[in-house]
Specification:
By secondary structure, the protein is an all-alpha fold. Among the domains are: 83 residues, Orthogonal Bundle (Helicase, Ruva Protein, domain 3), CATH 1.10.8.640; 29 residues. 59% of the residues lie in helices and 0% in strands. It is built from six helices and no strands. α2 packs across α3. The chain starts with 5 loop residues before the first helix and ends in a 7-residue tail after the last helix.
């Protein structure tokens, strides 16, 4: 006996598997020279994928990252240095393409911001600790207040009907 959910579940699984087959693509071609490929990956490790934004060009599988690695490969084959290639990428895509941005006037806040936030947090913590230790202790109860408190605690109220 078939469950009424077997057919819809089977159709959903088939649809998901078909989507995976369509998304699969051929592995990118690597340079015939392993030394050249190592230099390409070394430069690609220093550059950010503009699509993924949290991955290097070397780690990304986005189409743009594949194209940019191919561009690095062709520039290396024409004899350009890694510094020239990085400068080209920065000129074309801006400082954002660098995975570790340069220290400069435009990136000053990026480099010094975390340290400034840390200093502010330490200052706030020390100030809070200082305020807690300087608060006066609670005043002691007078003898009359102590008697009244004991009286309230020992007498029980009759339940109301």
């Amino acid at each position: 006996m078939r469950s009424r959910w077997q057919i819809p579940i089977a159709l959903c699984l088939a649809w998901l598997l078909a989507g995976q087959a369509v998304a699969a693509r051929e592995a990118p071609l690597l340079a015939a020279d392993p030394a050249l490929e190592a230099r390409v990956m070394e430069i690609a490790q220093e550059l950010r994928c503009l699509v993924c934004q949290n991955e290097t060009l070397a780690a990304s599988h986005a189409d743009l990252a594949v194209d940019l690695r191919q561009q690095i490969r062709s520039q290396l084959q024409t004899g350009q240095s890694p510094a020239q290639i990085r400068d080209f990428m920065v000129e074309r895509y801006g400082d954002f393409v660098l995975y570790r941005p340069r220290f400069g006037a435009r990136t000053l806040l990026l480099w010094l911001g975390p340290f400034a936030l840390l200093l502010v947090a330490v200052f706030a913590l020390l100030r809070t600790i200082g305020q807690r230790s300087s608060t006066p202790p609670e005043p002691e109860l007078t003898a009359a207040q102590t008697r009244r408190a004991r009286q309230l605690l020992t007498t029980t109220e009759e339940p109301r009907p």
